[in-house]
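ugh ok fine here u go
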Amino acid sequence: MSVARVTEISATSPKSFEDAIQQGIARASATLRNVKSAWVKEQTVRVENGKPSEYQVNMMVTFVLED
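structure:
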Protein backbone atom coordinates (compact mmCIF):
# COMPACT_ATOMS: atom_id res chain seq x y z
CA MET A 1 0.00 0.00 0.00
CA SER A 2 1.23 3.51 -0.71
CA VAL A 3 0.19 6.88 0.62
CA ALA A 4 0.47 10.05 -1.45
CA ARG A 5 0.35 13.71 -0.65
CA VAL A 6 -0.85 16.55 -2.87
CA THR A 7 0.60 20.04 -2.66
CA GLU A 8 -0.17 23.15 -4.68
CA ILE A 9 2.61 25.11 -6.39
CA SER A 10 2.75 28.11 -8.68
CA ALA A 11 5.29 28.57 -11.47
CA THR A 12 5.90 31.39 -13.93
CA SER A 13 7.70 31.83 -17.23
CA PRO A 14 8.16 34.70 -19.67
CA LYS A 15 8.05 32.16 -22.56
CA SER A 16 4.90 30.01 -22.35
CA PHE A 17 2.53 27.97 -20.21
CA GLU A 18 4.43 24.84 -21.26
CA ASP A 19 7.70 26.33 -20.00
CA ALA A 20 6.07 27.32 -16.70
CA ILE A 21 4.82 23.73 -16.29
CA GLN A 22 8.26 22.30 -17.08
CA GLN A 23 9.98 24.64 -14.64
CA GLY A 24 7.43 24.00 -11.90
CA ILE A 25 7.75 20.22 -12.17
CA ALA A 26 11.56 20.41 -12.33
CA ARG A 27 11.65 22.55 -9.18
CA ALA A 28 9.17 20.35 -7.32
CA SER A 29 11.17 17.24 -8.27
CA ALA A 30 14.34 18.85 -6.91
CA THR A 31 12.72 19.24 -3.49
CA LEU A 32 10.17 16.41 -3.33
CA ARG A 33 10.92 12.73 -3.86
CA ASN A 34 8.61 10.37 -5.76
CA VAL A 35 6.69 13.01 -7.75
CA LYS A 36 4.12 11.04 -9.73
CA SER A 37 1.78 13.55 -11.36
CA ALA A 38 0.73 17.18 -11.69
CA TRP A 39 -2.68 18.64 -12.46
CA VAL A 40 -2.75 22.14 -13.92
CA LYS A 41 -5.45 23.83 -11.90
CA GLU A 42 -5.22 27.37 -13.32
CA GLN A 43 -3.46 29.29 -16.05
CA THR A 44 -3.01 33.06 -15.95
CA VAL A 45 -1.25 35.42 -18.31
CA ARG A 46 -0.03 38.87 -17.33
CA VAL A 47 -0.26 41.56 -20.00
CA GLU A 48 1.97 44.60 -20.48
CA ASN A 49 1.54 47.07 -23.34
CA GLY A 50 -1.09 44.86 -24.94
CA LYS A 51 1.15 41.76 -25.08
CA PRO A 52 1.61 38.73 -22.83
CA SER A 53 4.55 39.33 -20.48
CA GLU A 54 4.38 36.38 -18.09
CA TYR A 55 2.64 33.01 -18.02
CA GLN A 56 1.64 31.49 -14.67
CA VAL A 57 0.32 28.04 -13.81
CA ASN A 58 -1.01 26.79 -10.50
CA MET A 59 -0.53 23.03 -10.22
CA MET A 60 -1.49 20.29 -7.81
CA VAL A 61 1.57 18.03 -7.52
CA THR A 62 1.19 14.47 -6.22
CA PHE A 63 4.08 12.62 -4.62
CA VAL A 64 4.23 9.26 -2.85
CA LEU A 65 5.38 9.30 0.78
CA GLU A 66 8.22 7.02 1.76
CA ASP A 67 7.86 4.37 4.48
